[in-house]
């Protein structure tokens, strides 16, 4: 299937090849032409008829040629900025034809910079030509006027690099023609920069190249990839049952695909809407056009029609703030397909190099079969609504709808970056109308210069009237450009909206500030002042609705025989509906200042409660006056601030992350302050005494009594029984520890280093992984920049055949956070000092006091016992892997030293699995597309636990985030509501780099007995889609996701009275047990079959492949758990040492002793041990310790039928429901029907326990 766009692209390639051949051949003897005329000839070929600019001594020679040229007319502007604006407006109306602006070196080109940058930002092809000093003057660095006084002639060119897509410098006659041609070809949708030295204007070049036309370079779509994308889109449309709406935007206009889009719409019947920058991209009177979509500020009917569709197809989307309602699009990625100029995104999968110009005609042929369905989707009429009030005041809400009947087909409408841009959106425009506006760049005054260029182009293309809407504040900035309009006999109708100043700024801030006011000019006399005393002009002033109505009936006005200005007076505070809504949304968005301010306010409110409690007379201290208000205050500060401090882990905006980090720092300091308040502790102990002596203790619930015990214990563990001097020292140490831990953790999210490899060095790494790496040229080699994010670096550990590559990657990974080494030293020293002050032998003893294991010695006994059982198994496994390594090294001719290194483990573990089980990780991965696995796992949990997930829409921190409301499956009313869940699944820069769950809101019972509902956010870093494949998950990813969702449901299904005990607020050495138990589902045949669907064939995993996956669970189990023991033993050792030691040596030596892997050099891997400051200090043993409980729970209750809802209900009722509101051992005994034991764990690890047969 061919299309005209494909043919054009092929012609462009052929012509480009011709030019390349000509540039290599000798051109002597050919007809000569001056460089200046060569440039003008090229511009003429591209349809340029006018050039804008201002004379200057470095462009005068070229200006002679321009003025004498038969086809190009010079339009002298009043200043260079306006000339750039005019070239911008000209190019837009010429359907992205080339706009040209000529300025002089330095002062002239810099004056035009704002306008050129705007063209670049808004993707308008503007050629900026700067006349510059001669090549001789530049070479000798003469100190000429317009230089910076330092002899540099490249300063302005370097500045242009920031806002032009290509910079071309004519340096000699030999290369001039090539330089000019290459520059113009680059100017497809953005501004380019070209210098023309004075001594080369008349230098001659061959005219041979002019015989080959220049065509804009539109790359061809790869046919195979394009076909795949077409299949993907067609499948999504089919899955949606044809329930599709189309959203057009700026790039439909910028890339001139309006005809292709309209053909697509007519042949599919799908309803269409436009973003603000896409207004007039389609005929607004067409019956299937529904209006403007601006995110949350959209008309409610339009908003519902778009957001309820099963699939939204965006074409040419550009989601800037004003174009998207301050980024409030409620279009989930899972229901979104985006067609762009250079890529296509189908839900989560992005396909680079597949542009809409060539894709759309083929997509039209594919989807026209859905016309019968698409044409039945209702579209509300898009009409201008006049307000029903009877006032004579001209308001924004009346003015713009009233213009609906004034506009007519063929009008060319230019709107200023002000109220006009917002007001015009509420008005449907007639067919063949063009709207010219600057929404993204938003330079005040742009519209006046742009109107000049637009009017010239409109006259050339036989448009009807040119109508400009501009505010008085904007007009004052660029009013000079009315003069060229009059001089050239143009006849724009200018509506000057007089509201005595800057309305947008007043709406945002400073409504009554003088800085938003301007002088009140005599506007109706303006055209006479700026005219040439010969041209007739017309000016009107209207102040009431009747006056405007009368004007629209005035025959002289309607005749439009000359330039006309209409001054429309409005109230100084009046703003269009959409502008007011936009500002309201922006103000509601939490900005960086809000995060810190709200946190400080929450802290102060909590402090007030503590102050009140601390002042109580001991006899007045009761459960109601002390424990309840303190518990409620703790709950409230967490409710307000937990989401704010969460942003530091997920926000894409640095300012927000920094503010969130500051908020977290404030909260940590306040936590230390609160824990050290002796007055509050005295009130707690007095209340406890009074409660017990009064007999109230027996009347309280178990959870009430647990609250008292824990709150009093908090004070004891905080050292409040210490003398004042030691308390102050302890307080200082705790604050210092808190801040150091925060800095340690922050470095993880801010780490951005990369390691670079060639393709040869990456041999063995899957191609779809390599395609996601940053690719660049280094000298004559292509290299790949690999981040240390898990989806990037771990495939190298597992697949890179070159051991040196693996070694470098592993050593880099270990050393990537060397910055954390001194911080960890400081953390451990502070913990030793704190433990000593509190009277504990070690930090481990302090930490374990409130855990199930109870003592530091208990940790040591557990780890030593497990190591003694694991070591023999690990030694055997290591010997097997070493033999595989030896054989491979012999086959590859690599030296073999008999050692097993850290970077060998994952690689040969995979090789062993492939060899013994014939199990290919990458093949397995193909059966686990994210789009299948995630909803299937959610469904398994829903069925097992009797709940239902409902997708909801709302403001989130990133467009990829999914939101759900969670209800009881049989809910009949509000009592069946459970809570909320967020999923943030894919990696991005500055995001938390592993997988974890945050309980952003805890569930609890309000004082009035009502329920406050929990909210849990799951953050992961699954591999993103590639050009060839959708987002796929390894089996490890599947296990991790299942595990983390276990934490989510622990948070959602807990039902405690107090937030303190909610969800995962249990002993640290038990918190992982429920999720570890749930990992077992990922090794069950029926579940694996249910979760799998090959991304191409849609087939589930075969029984044979499932069997291999299950058998791989305990392959090399000894080495796996020895690695876990290494982490746990390091954690234990550093938290029981009495003195500081060399922790890098400890890290590397202990790893070799316990994990049985060697290193060639000692890297400071302890800097990457995030658990040690993330709440698992002296607690890493808990991962293995809790496995004992996990294995016991699964085998005892779930093994017989893991998908049985009755067993799921038992799990909810006995484990999840209680959270930390009772002893964890009591919950376990209640669930198991007996005391827990380690039999199941030991048999799974050291025996052969077959899976259940479902």
TrEMBL record:
What residues does the Thiamine pyrophosphate enzyme TPP-binding domain cover? 430-568
The task this protein performs is described as:
Cleaves proteins, imported into the mitochondrion, to their mature size. While most mitochondrial precursor proteins are processed to the mature form in one step by mitochondrial processing peptidase (MPP), the sequential cleavage by MIP of an octapeptide after initial processing by MPP is a required step for a subgroup of nuclear-encoded precursor proteins destined for the matrix or the inner membrane.
Q: Which CDD domains match?
A: M3A_TOP, TPP_PDC_IPDC, TPP_PYR_PDC_IPDC_like
Please provide, in alphabetical order, the Gene Ontology terms of the cellular component aspect for this entry.
Answer: mitochondrial intermembrane space
Thiamine pyrophosphate enzyme central domain: which residues?
244-348
Q: Which GO terms describe its molecular function?
A: carboxy-lyase activity; magnesium ion binding; metalloendopeptidase activity; thiamine pyrophosphate binding
Signal peptide stretch: none
Q: Which residue range or ranges hold the Thiamine pyrophosphate enzyme N-terminal TPP-binding domain?
A: 35-143
What SUPFAM superfamilies has UniProt attached to this entry? DHS-like NAD/FAD-binding domain, Metalloproteases ('zincins'), catalytic domain, Thiamin diphosphate-binding fold (THDP-binding)
How the cofactor is bound: the record states: Binds 1 zinc ion.
Q: Please give the name of this protein.
A: Mitochondrial intermediate peptidase
Under Pfam families, the record lists: Peptidase_M3, TPP_enzyme_C, TPP_enzyme_M, TPP_enzyme_N
Organism of origin: Candolleomyces eurysporus
Key word Hydrolase present in the record?
yes
Necessary cofactors: Zn(2+); thiamine diphosphate
Q: Which family does it belong to?
A: Belongs to the peptidase M3 family. Belongs to the TPP enzyme family.
Principal subcellular localisation of the protein: mitochondrion
UniProt KW Mitochondrion keyword: yes
PANTHER family annotated for this entry? PROTEASE M3 THIMET OLIGOPEPTIDASE-RELATED, SACCHAROLYSIN
Biological processes, Gene Ontology terms: peptide metabolic process; proteolysis
Name the source's superkingdom.
Eukaryota
Q: Which UniProt keywords apply?
A: Decarboxylase, Hydrolase, Lyase, Magnesium, Metal-binding, Metalloprotease, Mitochondrion, Protease, Thiamine pyrophosphate, Zinc
């Amino acid at each position: 299937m061919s299309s005209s766009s494909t043919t054009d692209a092929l012609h462009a390639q052929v012509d480009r090849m011709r030019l390349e051949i000509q540039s290599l051949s000798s051109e002597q003897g050919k007809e000569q032409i001056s460089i200046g005329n060569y440039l003008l000839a090229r511009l003429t070929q591209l349809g340029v008829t006018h050039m804008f600019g201002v004379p200057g001594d470095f462009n005068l020679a070229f200006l002679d040629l321009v003025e004498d040229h038969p086809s190009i007319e010079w339009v002298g502007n009043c200043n260079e900025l306006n000339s750039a604006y005019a070239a911008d407006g000209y190019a837009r109306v010429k359907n992205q034809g080339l706009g040209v602006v000529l300025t002089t070196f330095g002062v002239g080109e810099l004056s035009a910079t704002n306008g050129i940058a705007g063209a670049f930002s808004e993707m308008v092809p503007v050629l900026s030509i700067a006349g510059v000093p001669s090549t001789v003057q530049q070479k000798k660095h003469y100190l000429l006027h317009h230089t910076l006084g330092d002899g540099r002639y490249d300063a302005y060119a370097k500045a242009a690099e920031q806002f032009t897509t290509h910079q071309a410098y004519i340096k000699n006659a030999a290369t001039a023609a090539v330089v000019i041609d290459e520059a113009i070809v680059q100017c497809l949708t953005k501004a380019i920069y070209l210098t023309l030295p004075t001594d080369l204007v008349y230098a001659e070049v061959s005219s041979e190249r002019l015989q080959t036309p220049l065509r804009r370079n539109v790359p061809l779509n790869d046919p195979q990839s394009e076909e795949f994308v077409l299949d993907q889109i067609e499948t999504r449309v089919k899955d949606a049952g044809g329930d599709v709406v189309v959203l057009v935007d700026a790039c439909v206009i910028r890339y001139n695909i309006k005809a292709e889009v309209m053909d697509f719409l007519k042949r599919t019947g799908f309803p269409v809407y436009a973003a603000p920058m896409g207004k007039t991209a389609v005929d607004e009177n067409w019956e299937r056009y529904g209006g403007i979509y601006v995110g949350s500020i959209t008309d409610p009917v339009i908003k519902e029609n778009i957001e309820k569709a099963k699939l939204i197809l965006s074409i040419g989307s550009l989601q800037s703030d004003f174009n998207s309602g301050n980024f409030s699009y409620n279009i989930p990625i899972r229901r979104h397909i985006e067609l762009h100029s250079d890529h296509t995104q189908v839900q989560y999968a992005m396909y680079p190099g597949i542009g809409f110009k060539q894709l759309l005609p083929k997509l039209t042929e594919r989807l026209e079969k859905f016309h019968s369905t698409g044409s039945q989707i209702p579209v509300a009429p898009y009409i201008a609504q006049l307000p029903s009030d009877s006032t004579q005041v001209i308001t924004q809400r009346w003015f713009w709808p009233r213009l609906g009947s004034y506009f007519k087909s063929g009008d060319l409408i230019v709107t200023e970056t002000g109220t006009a841009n917002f007001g015009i959106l509420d008005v449907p425009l007639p067919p063949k109308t063009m709207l010219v506006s600057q929404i993204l760049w938003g330079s005040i005054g742009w519209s006046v210069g742009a109107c000049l260029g637009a009017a010239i182009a409109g006259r050339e293309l036989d448009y009807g009237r040119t109508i400009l809407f501009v505010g008085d504040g904007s007009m004052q900035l660029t009013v000079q450009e009315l003069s060229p309009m009059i001089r050239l006999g143009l006849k724009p109708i200018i509506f000057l909206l007089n509201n005595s100043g800057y309305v947008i700024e007043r709406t945002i801030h400073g409504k009554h500030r003088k800085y938003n006011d301007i002088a009140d000019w005599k506007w109706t006399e303006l055209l006479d002042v700026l005219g040439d005393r010969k041209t007739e002009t017309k000016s009107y002033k209207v102040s009431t609705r009747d006056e405007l109505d009368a004007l629209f009936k005035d025959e002289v006005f309607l005749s439009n025989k000359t330039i006309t200005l209409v001054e429309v007076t409005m109230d100084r505070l009046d703003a269009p509906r959409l502008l007011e809504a936009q500002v309201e949304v922006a103000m509601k968005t939490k900005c960086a200042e809000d995060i810190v301010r709200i946190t400080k306010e929450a802290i102060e409110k909590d402090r007030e409660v503590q102050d009140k409690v601390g002042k109580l007379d001991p006899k007045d201290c009761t459960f109601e006056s002390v424990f309840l208000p303190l518990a409620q205050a703790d709950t409230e500060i967490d409710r307000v601030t937990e989401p704010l401090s969460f942003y530091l882990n997920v926000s894409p905006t640095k300012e927000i992350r920094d503010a969130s980090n500051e908020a977290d720092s404030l909260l940590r300091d306040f936590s230390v302050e609160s824990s050290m308040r002796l007055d509050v502790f005295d009130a707690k102990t007095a209340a406890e005494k009074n409660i017990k002596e009064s007999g109230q203790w027996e009347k309280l619930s178990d959870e009430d009594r647990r609250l008292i015990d824990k709150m009093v214990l908090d004070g004891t563990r905080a050292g409040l029984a210490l003398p004042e001097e030691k308390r102050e020292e302890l307080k200082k140490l705790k604050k210092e520890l808190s801040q150091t831990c925060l800095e340690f953790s922050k470095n993880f999210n801010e780490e951005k280093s990369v390691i670079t490899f060639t393709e040869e060095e990456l041999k063995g790494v899957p191609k779809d992984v390599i395609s996601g790496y940053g690719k660049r040229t280094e000298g004559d080699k292509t290299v790949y920049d690999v981040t240390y994010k898990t989806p990037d670096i771990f495939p190298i550990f597992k697949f890179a055949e070159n051991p040196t590559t693996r070694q470098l990657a592993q050593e880099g990974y270990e050393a990537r956070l060397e910055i954390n080494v001194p911080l960890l030293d400081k953390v451990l020293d502070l913990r030793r000092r704190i433990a000593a002050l509190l009277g504990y032998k070690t930090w481990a003893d302090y930490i374990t006091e409130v855990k199930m294991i109870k003592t530091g010695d208990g940790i040591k006994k557990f780890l030593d016992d497990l190591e003694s059982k694991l070591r023999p198994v690990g030694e055997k496994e290591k010997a097997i892997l070493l033999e595989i390594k030896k054989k491979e090294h012999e086959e590859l001719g690599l030296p073999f030293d008999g050692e097993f290194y850290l970077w060998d483990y994952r690689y040969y573990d995979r090789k062993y699995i492939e060899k013994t089980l014939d199990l290919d990780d990458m093949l397995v991965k193909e059966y686990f597309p994210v789009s299948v696995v995630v909803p299937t796992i959610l469904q398994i949990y829903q069925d097992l636990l009797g709940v239902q997930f409902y997708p909801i829409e709302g403001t989130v921190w990133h467009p990829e985030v999914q939101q759900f409301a969670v209800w009881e499956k049989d809910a009949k009313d509000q009592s069946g509501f459970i809570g909320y869940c967020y999923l943030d699944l894919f990696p991005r820069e500055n995001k938390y780099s592993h997988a974890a769950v945050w309980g952003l809101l805890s569930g609890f019972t309000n004082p009035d007995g009502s329920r406050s509902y929990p909210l849990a956010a799951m953050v992961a870093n699954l591999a993103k889609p590639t050009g060839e494949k959708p987002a796929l998950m390894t089996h490890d990813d599947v296990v991790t996701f299942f595990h983390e969702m276990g934490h989510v449901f622990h948070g959602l299904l807990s039902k405690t009275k107090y937030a303190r005990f909610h969800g995962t607020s249990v002993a640290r050495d038990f918190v992982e047990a429920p999720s570890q138990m749930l990992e077992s589902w990922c090794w069950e045949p029926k579940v694996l079959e249910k979760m799998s669907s090959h991304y191409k064939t849609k087939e589930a995993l075969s029984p044979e492949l499932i069997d291999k996956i299950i058998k791989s669970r305990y392959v090399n189990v000894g080495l796996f758990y020895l690695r876990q023991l290494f982490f746990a033993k390091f954690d234990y050792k550093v938290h029981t040492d009495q003195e500081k030691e060399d922790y890098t040596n400890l890290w590397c030596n202990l790893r070799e002793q316990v994990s049985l892997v060697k290193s060639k050099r000692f890297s400071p891997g302890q800097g990457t041990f995030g658990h040690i400051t993330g709440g698992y200090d002296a607690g890493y043993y808990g991962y293995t310790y809790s496995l004992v409980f996990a294995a016991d729970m699964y085998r005892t209750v779930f093994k017989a039928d893991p998908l049985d809802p009755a067993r799921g209900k038992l799990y909810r009722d006995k484990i999840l429901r209680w959270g930390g509101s009772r002893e964890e051992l009591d919950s376990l005994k209640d669930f198991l029907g007996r005391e827990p034991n380690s039999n199941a764990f030991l048999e799974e690890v050291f025996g052969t326990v077959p899976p259940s047969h479902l």
